[in-house]
Amino acid sequence: xxxxxxxxxxxxxxxxxxxxxxxxEKEGFKVDEALNGQQALEMIEKTEYNLIILDLMLPVVxxxxxxKEVRKKSDIPIIMLTARGEEFDKILxxxxxADDYVVKPFSPRELVARVKAMLRRYGPKEPSxxxxxxxxxxxxxxxxxxxxxxxxxxxxKEFDLLYFLAKNKEKVFTREKLLEEVxxxxxxxxxxxxxxxxxxLREKLGGSKASTYIVTVWGVGYxxxxxx
Amino acid sequence: xxxxxxxxxxxxxxxxxxxxxxxxEKEGFKVDEALNGQQALEMIEKTEYNLIILDLMLPVVxxxxxxKEVRKKSDIPIIMLTARGEEFDKILxxxxxADDYVVKPFSPRELVARVKAMLRRYGPKEPSxxxxxxxxxxxxxxxxxxxxxxxxxxxxKEFDLLYFLAKNKEKVFTREKLLEEVxxxxxxxxxxxxxxxxxxLREKLGGSKASTYIVTVWGVGYxxxxxx
DNA sequence: GAAATTTATAATGAATTTGTGAATGAGGGC
DNA sequence: GCCCTCATTCACAAATTCATTATAAATTTC
Lengths: 228, 228
What we know:
homodimer, alpha/beta, Rossmann fold, four-stranded antiparallel beta sheet, 8 helices, 12 strands
């Protein structure tokens, strides 16, 4: 992880920057800071960052403008920081190219989790691997799944679940762990939700060999297993 | 399970403590309680906890102070409990070294999930190891057991028992100790239960060399022994 | 060698866990 | 606004495992 992942934090409150820096550095990230939008744009010009954390309310040049400017030249992931009550701005932020937002006050765990999720997704592109098994092909790029040569339509959650299990084949996950990994650290719903999605998946994978891949490990959870 | 993870819960409302205790103990954690900040600090001094759950509003010494004091000496994960509306305090809490916060009223699942997440991240982690012996392979990640090249299906308890014994090979355990370690500290059933599971295991490990590994130590208990 | 203690075997009902069908409700597209 | 999809939850059925009991076998002790 910490192999030189550079993050730029833009906020006019020094205290906030320090807080964010504290937790990001604990995770091994390299952190730079900018106190206003103007400065931020200059720094982005000079240095190649892997991710930008951007407060909306900035002096000189506001967050939206920074966002728009950055997007003209690059696809760096941007996480916006917004104060509660600025909910409306959220939409605007997304339209202008932000990839995620976090509402202040936030928990460091939440921010770190989102940063990591973002980097996993957009960061130093580990070639998104096409997974292939007998009678089953999973392409994360196009989010396409092919069973016995025929494309099968999966819902987003179904796809994410299948892809996660397949990517970590032979490894058992508890329902709790799956909720955390596939649904997200901030989902606290019922464990049985996992069962339902597994069922849907098995059904959609049909009577073919593919339907045998998702295995119930009784008393523990599920795993993806190729078998023999 | 059973490996003694100790959590200190600090709150001036006994009712709140009981609630938290209920859910944490159900998960196998050992829970201590303190009703005020002063008491909390004394307990932390004497005992080594793996995690602290800390209410902000405390008599004698408040949550912030406790947090600051703890941080002077240790990196124990701290989860803060705050009442809704104390949003502002959240930031302050983080600056003082809290690792996460939960807003009251909270769902027990949420609290437990956060506790576990915290322990996973900061707690000590032992890598799960594949154990291999002549004619027997035990993989805790996939929870697979292979005897003489053929996979054998074990029930959860059988697997846990076998893995525990094998991981601690050459060491004798009384039935009592096994119940505590494999079943959990809160299991108060018959000692004979262990016998039953040992028998099942031996049967499933078949006539091969593997079936000789679980050894009865007469008058004491069982051990896993590779022999010659 | 017999009695006493400890362990092995086998069977069964209870308890836990998972599968299944269906209902609800949120959110997006038209 | 309306319909459709998807995610989630619930209730119930099915499957599996678990703990216990009773009885037989083994081992020790005297």
